[in-house]
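Dear colleague,

As promised, here are the two records you asked about, laid out in our usual form so they can be pasted straight into your sheet.

NAME FIELD: protein one
SEQUENCE, THEN STRUCTURE:
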Amino acid sequence: MLEMSQVSYQVGEKWLLDSISLCIQPGEMLALLGQNGAGKSTLLKVLSGECQPASGAVTLSGQPLQALSTNRLAKQRAVLPQKSRLNFPFKVLQVAMMGRSPYRGERYKASAEVVYDALKATGTAHLSERVFTTLSGGEQQRVHLARVLAQIWQPSEDNQARYLLLDEPTSALDLIHQHSVLAVAKKFAHEAHVGVLAVLHDLNLAAYYADRVAILRNGKMLCQGEPFHVLTPATIYHAFGAIVKVIRHPERERSPLVIWTDQTESQLIKADKKSVLQGINKSA
């Protein structure tokens, strides 16, 4: 289990994370939601070990992250940041092969085969001989996803749990590739028994693909749980200030569908002020 317990993180006088507790279980996909500036990317950086918390603990399989070697950590968790800059004229295959760097010098299963499988899973195998910098932003994003998938594609020799951390993996993608990328992530979670955390902005993508959803608000954990329990009108109003309706998805009964309404806050409260405030207080 990859877990953070009562973690706080401070920059200057501002607390970006305040007493956050969150865990990712192998075999599940967790979506992290929240407004811009809520602390989502900061949480991912702390959870991955890139940033050290001011207080609290982050552990991987019960061990503090700082107690693990860089190589060990690289074999157990892979991170796809919001932006992965690469300005050198590498071919796509070379970029994806970078994900296999933790295994250099080891007698391990053929890296070329692993990388091909990761490229195929992300729909980029046909681009393998293209120069990376000539690709569109969405194509580059999918190649970087292939790179991090290749990093933890197979269990390590001691069969330690693996985790995939994705920061806005659909931000540069068109509709079909948004769904295909999240479908790959969910399949990877369920079939390869990998714990996946995806920072998302689209509530309906989160509802459709995530096993659990967590929502941050101003650096604090507002709520977490199964999509139907978390993505309620009251919670969404409290987290985003958005007035929505939530119904059962017509194609997937276990998933809610969030529908934007044209109501203003004043209209909503005038219509049903008591129930709205009760719902918001309950979800806080």
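NAME FIELD: protein two
SEQUENCE, THEN STRUCTURE:
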Amino acid sequence: MLSLVRNEWTKIFKRVGTYVMLGLLILIIGVTAAFTKYDDSKAKETENWKQELATEIEGNQQALSQNPKMDKFSKKDFERRIAISEYRIENDIQPKVKETTWSYVETNAYLVIVVALFTIIVAAGIVASEFSWGTIKLLLIRPISRTRILLSKYISVLLFGMSMLFVLFVLSYLLGLILFGGADQSAHLSYVDGKVVEQSIVGFLIKTYLLKSIDVVMMATMAFMISAVFRSSSLAIGISLFLLFVGSNVTALLAFKFDWAKYSLFANTDLTQYTGFTSPLVDSMSMGFSITMLIIYFTIFQLLAFIVFNKRDVAA
């Protein structure tokens, strides 16, 4: 199995497109660093931060009271801001106006969607390209089971996605260290289950990136399944990218009116909604529920991919 994975890994990095995607990721990180540094140069700290927070709390409370029909997502956001601001005042925790290494790493957590995009492209082509190029026959005549061949391709896709995620985290940290100074471990305040939770910024970010990797895995698995079932990389890329950018937005709109939206794949891929990074789409959702739904979808995707691939006739 190790030799198969190594072979697939070599194939991935023999393609010019792989280096283009890596270069684009590095470029995007560099551009965000430049803009963040520019904004940071204009930021000024103030000694009257408690008074400013108190004014902000009063404004947010008025917004809540004056808009009783406010949607639940906006209401939760206002409640989060009020609770965190009150916690800062009570515990004398001044919000950092100037950018830090870790705050920059936190900002770049949103770039995980770029990693997901590139991983989808690799996953969509790793099986379909074998059929379009006709090299699938050379693979299947070897004394190796189809299951092991497909599994090695899937493992290679996951390794690629995790490698890109590692590049994102490490490069963000290094650029943050260079541009914004020391990496002191300040506290991070999250709003979870109606309470403010204080935790180490380093631990919070590691957990955030690990949980966001689940989103990469699920989207790559779906693209991989489409590639294996339909033997079309363009179809796999098209459907997967469409769902990547539209699926979560449509699910969020449905969640305004219908609780059954919580059963959608896109309502559950972002597990950071349970750590204070965002808020759950539906109040009745929990970490356990989302993990269960992800396991169900993951199983369906894998069964479809492996069953169809093992039964397909490639003689023609």
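A couple of things worth noting about protein two: Residues 61 and 82 are 8 Å apart (CA to CA). The chain has two domains: 2-40+102-311, 44-97.

Best,
R.
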